[in-house]
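Task: sequence design from structure.
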């Protein structure tokens, strides 16, 4: 092993290592610059070092109890292990561990630990704390429970939100004498609250002042979130408090909490207090603060011995909610639970005598039921809820469930513990947001921000296109459940199409409870604090992404029943909608689609034309042509019975089918003389933008739309994009498919590689990555033109976007599930290069230099594969005989036999 040894003090990092060339021991000092933030100091420090280390050893840890990589630096305790691992991507161990286990074993245990834990050391407040809570959210597809401190109540530093998938409510607020209607995923009663008091004094409220030390650790292997605190209260009393939480992955109505207090320098009387608090509102998003946020009405509170129940309902959607709580203890001999009932809160407490040095534990299991998924009496449901006997049972249960989950979602990255950790985290949150066994009981899909916060109000967007591919690889039945959410709202989509004078089905840009349009009409610009009109609803391409998800699901599963009963009907309705959106030009013989927006949300229409939308958005037209081709495919591959039945249900005629053939060859696209594909008609007339000027003025220019609007200017006037738009089609479709569609449309591209290179260069230089969905798409596009460095840079930024909250506060309002899904997809489909989008699996790896190998498993057409992909070899074991395509050649694989493919 090649270790780097560090002794970290407030002012210096003393470091030593053996020079690889001379074997001489190098010993040096790095002076911490007091004016620079710690991270910048560490980046500078790293730049002074060679790159051949595989472990870092901290020689002077100060706080071995929390973790033996804690040191004092710039006069504050920090876990330097976390900083170093995030920078060097190698394990960082403390000297005590090394002394105990030897360097090799300590490093290997830490590498394993780091890949499975999301840890935070120290007290945070404000948006940072909010975002860490989002990142440590637990859940099981049914509910999401933000990882707030259990002692906290909603305020500017903490937001203990709880959400159940599908529980929405609408409220109307009058702003500037306009009625603004908003439908929100409702923040449910807070039952994770627990705190303590000593000798009948005030309940403990968490703040930085009384906290000596705090470590929060999410163990993704087991689903257990642990917070360990050392407190020094104002009255001099010292305690250690450990709280643990775990969501039930099997009985999805339940989560469990454990709270342990240990008096360190006193004896006396203590109380632990818990609540189910119905006085909650939706207040996670600062921008929404002027809107009515009282979604819940509490009906009553009940109690019986050590159980308590709170019943509530949503104000307008009238969804009934019951939250139950049961207290227990493994070491308090007599649990005399005292209950205080108010109308909208039920508090339970236990009082006990404590002796200095001993630990006392209260366990609380919470059950949540709603009338959405539970028929019958909710009180009965809560009363008959089968609680785990002990918290340890709940943890065991969770551990077993997560073991199954991880053996299904197996993904191992060799050589980079940061990527390993964050990919596990993305998979963890994908699973928290939806689970096969749970979603089959629910009528929901995945929101853009998971079940983790209130931004975008829990709505479902085209972001499904970025996350469903991950579910397809591991839980195709889950994808089916999520597609059924769309099918169940086909009626609403038809109504919506009708309301704009169109036919077929137009799915809403933002979908919530019923499938009606939930996009806002006005959007608050946080720079000016003014409400600007919001036309994002014109992103009709959401229907294309639904069609895309249907096709992908079908292509990966061959689920004919789904196509017969639901899929084809949706596709035909979507097709009918797009037919009705086209206009035919007699002179040119071409079709146009107008009044839409592409994925680039900076362009809502043409300069000086109000509410116009755009004409011939390239992404929309290409994907429309693609969907029409798929409909043609089904029209020749399905039996006449199935076709007749589906045509009838969708009111789709033979004439319509004829039209799809004509339209899909004649939709208009525009190119300039350099073969750049215009984002929409007239794009090249827009003004270029002086990015450097704005960068100098504003620093971060990712939300260029807001900046321009604040300056009284209009982003519609400029060639500036929030995210990939024209080139999105190249992300979604296989390259040959993309060029077939272009050729179907009458645009032959002679030099395809040159076309892709030029277009990526052109649009990348005009894109500010104002959406987290931007970089990951460009990362994959960069791989196409063998710009591996750029691909890696963009991928790394996308991978860390929530971890570092790179949009400066948006993670606080919920994770970005789309980019999480897309990074997983880029790893398997493009880095490992196992492309599932064709009739056969196609293998063409591009393993990043920073990684030694990618190991993972996946399903394709009912066959399970286990892959190991290195820089020069693909090893694959299928569980069935199957043919794959390796770098263009067909290869036969035999069931349960490993095949090695060298490249
Ligand atoms: C992006 C959209 C995305 C939405 C929800 C926006 O910022 O521009 O593409 O669908 O966020 O994630």
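Answer:
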């Amino acid at each position: 092993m090649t270790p780097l040894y560090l002794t970290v003090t407030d002012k210096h990092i003393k470091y030593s290592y053996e020079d690889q060339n001379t074997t001489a021991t190098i010993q040096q000092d790095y002076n911490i610059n007091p004016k620079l933030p710690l991270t910048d100091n560490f980046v500078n420090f790293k730049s002074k070092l060679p790159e051949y280390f595989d472990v870092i050893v901290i020689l002077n840890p100060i706080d071995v109890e929390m973790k033996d990589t804690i040191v004092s630096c710039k006069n504050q305790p920090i876990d330097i292990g976390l900083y170093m691992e995030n920078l060097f991507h190698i394990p960082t161990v403390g000297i005590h561990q090394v002394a105990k286990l030897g360097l090799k074993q300590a490093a290997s245990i830490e590498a394993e630990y780091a890949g499975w834990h999301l840890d935070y050391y120290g007290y945070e407040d404000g948006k940072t704390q909010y975002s860490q809570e989002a990142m440590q959210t637990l859940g099981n597809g049914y509910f999401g429970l933000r990882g707030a401190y259990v002692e906290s109540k909603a305020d500017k530093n903490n937001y203990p939100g709880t959400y159940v998938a599908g529980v929405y409510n609408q409220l109307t607020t009058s702003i500037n004498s306009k009625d603004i209607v908003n439908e929100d995923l409702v923040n449910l009663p807070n039952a994770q609250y627990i705190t303590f008091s000593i000798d009948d004094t005030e309940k403990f409220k968490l703040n930085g002042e009384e906290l000596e030390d705090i470590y929060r650790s999410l163990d993704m292997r087991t689903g257990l979130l642990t917070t360990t605190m050392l407190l020094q209260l104002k009255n001099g009393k010292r305690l250690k408090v450990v709280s643990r939480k775990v969501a039930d992955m099997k009985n999805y109505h339940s989560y469990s909490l454990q709270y342990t207090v240990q008096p360190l320098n006193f004896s006396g009387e203590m109380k632990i207090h818990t609540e189910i608090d119905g006085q909650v509102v939706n207040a996670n998003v600062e921008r929404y603060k002027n809107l009515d946020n009282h979604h819940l009405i509490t009906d009553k509170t009940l109690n019986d011995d050590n159980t308590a129940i709170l019943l509530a309902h949503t104000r307008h959607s009238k969804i009934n909610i019951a939250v139950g709580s049961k207290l227990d203890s493994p070491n308090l001999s007599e649990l005399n639970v005292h209950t205080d009932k108010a109308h909208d809160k039920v508090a339970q407490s236990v009082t006990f005598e404590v002796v200095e040095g001993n630990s006392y534990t209260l366990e609380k299991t919470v059950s949540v039921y709603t009338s959405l998924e539970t028929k019958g009496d909710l009180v009965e449901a809560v009363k008959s809820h089968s609680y785990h006997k002990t918290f340890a049972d709940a943890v065991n249960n969770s551990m077993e469930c997560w073991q199954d989950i991880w053996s299904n979602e197996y993904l191992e990255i060799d050589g980079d513990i940061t990527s390993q950790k964050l990919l596990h985290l993305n998979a963890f949150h994908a699973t928290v947001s939806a689970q096969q066994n749970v979603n089959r009981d629910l009528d929901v899909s995945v929101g853009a921000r998971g079940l983790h916060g209130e931004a975008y109000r829990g709505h479902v967007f085209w972001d499904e296109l970025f996350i469903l591919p991950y579910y397809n690889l591991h839980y195709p039945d889950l994808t089916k459940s999520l597609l059924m959410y769309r099918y169940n709202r086909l009626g609403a989509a038809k109504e919506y199409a009708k309301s704009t004078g169109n036919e077929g089905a137009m799915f809403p840009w933002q979908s919530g409870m019923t499938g009606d349009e939930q996009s806002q009409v006005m959007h608050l610009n946080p720079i000016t604090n003014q409400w600007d009109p919001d036309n994002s609803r014109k992103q009709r391409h959401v229907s294309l992404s639904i069609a895309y998800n249907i096709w992908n699901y079908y292509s990966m599963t061959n689920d004919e029943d789904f196509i017969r009963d639901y899929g084809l009907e949706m596709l035909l309705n979507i097709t009918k909608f797009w037919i009705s959106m086209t206009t035919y030009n007699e002179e040119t013989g071409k079709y146009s689609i107008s009044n839409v927006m592409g994925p680039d949300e900076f362009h809502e229409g043409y300069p000086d034309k109000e509410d116009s939308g755009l004409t011939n958005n390239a992404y929309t037209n290409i994907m429309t042509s693609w969907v029409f081709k798929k409909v043609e495919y089904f029209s020749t591959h399905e039996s006449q019975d199935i076709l007749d039945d589906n045509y009838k249900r969708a009111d789709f005629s033979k004439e319509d089918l004829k039209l799809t053939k004509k339209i899909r060859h004649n939709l208009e696209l525009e190119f300039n003389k350099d073969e750049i594909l215009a984002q929409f008609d007239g794009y090249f007339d827009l003004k270029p933008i002086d990015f450097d000027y704005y960068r100098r003025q504003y620093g971060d220019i990712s939300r260029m739309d807001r900046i321009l609007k604040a300056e009284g200017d209009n982003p519609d006037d400029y060639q500036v994009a929030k995210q990939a738009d024209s080139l999105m089609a190249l992300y979604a479709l296989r390259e040959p498919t993309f060029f077939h569609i272009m050729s179907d449309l009458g645009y032959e591209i002679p030099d395809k590689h040159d076309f892709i290179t030029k277009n990526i260069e052109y649009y990348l230089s005009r894109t500010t990555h104002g959406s987290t969905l931007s970089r990951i798409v460009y990362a994959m596009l960069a791989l196409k033109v063998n710009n591996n460095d750029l691909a890696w840079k963009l991928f790394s930024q996308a991978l860390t976007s929530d971890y570092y909250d790179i949009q400066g506060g948006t993670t606080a309002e919920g994770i970005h599930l789309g980019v999480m899904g897309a990074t997983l997809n880029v790893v398997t489909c493009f880095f490992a290069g196992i492309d599932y989008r064709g009739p056969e699996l196609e293998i063409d790896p591009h393993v990043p230099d920073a990684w030694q190998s990618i190991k993972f498993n996946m399903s394709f057409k009912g066959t399970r594969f286990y892959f190991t992909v290195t820089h020069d070899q693909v090893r694959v074991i299928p569980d069935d005989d199957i043919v794959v395509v390796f770098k263009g050649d067909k290869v036969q694989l035999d069931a349960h036999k490993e095949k090695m493919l060298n490249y």
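The mean pLDDT is 96.
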